[in-house]
Amino acid sequence: MIFDNIKNRRSVFPAQYNDKPIAKEAIEILLEAANCAPTHKKTEPWRFKVFQGKSKEKLGLFLSEKYKEVEERPKQVKIKKLLENPVKSAAVIAICMQRDPNECVPEWEEIAAVAMAVQNMWLCCTEMGIGCYWSSPGLISHMDEYFDMAEGEKCLGFLYMGYYDAEVQEVTRGAIGDKVVWM
User: Fold this and answer.
1) CA-CA distances (angstroms) from residue 148 to 2, 66, 153?
2) CATH class of 12-165
3) Domain-by-domain residue ranges, the chain?
4) pLDDT tens per residue, range 65-93
5) Helix or strand run (H / E) with residue 130
6) Computed from CA positions of residues 114, 135, 13, 147, in that sequence, does the dihedral angle turn out positive or negative?
């Protein structure tokens, strides 16, 4: 049941991933799930760039070097994390949004559509036993220096993915009744 995947969806971080690769076919299924997200006026604003193999190392190097360049007091822990997280992952997907050139819908709707596409991928990852984590570091504003983006396209973050062995912890949430007003 889909509710079970929704309830069991968790952030699983690169430090928790094992060395098992994710097959290209599995990633293609995730991307197809993303492509099924709702989108106002059918703008389909989601764009993805998939990193596997050596391209993950290059991404980590760019992120760590860019962080050192732009941060006044770079922290060694963060440099190491930016360098290693892509390498620890079986795959990394850059999550991008292509703004409708006619701006026929508000930008927040385009961002929301991309987020729904990512949620579709995340739920499929849960079903497939793949851990994932959406990271949106401040460095995403510099990604146009790393890969080609179309006019109006922007990076919204990275989906780090990998298989994992450990149990993920259950999360407790506040009661829904505290967040709803019945009219």
Assistant:
1) 36, 17, 9
2) alpha beta
3) 12-165
4) 999 999 999 999 999 999 999 999 999 99
5) strand 130-135
6) positive
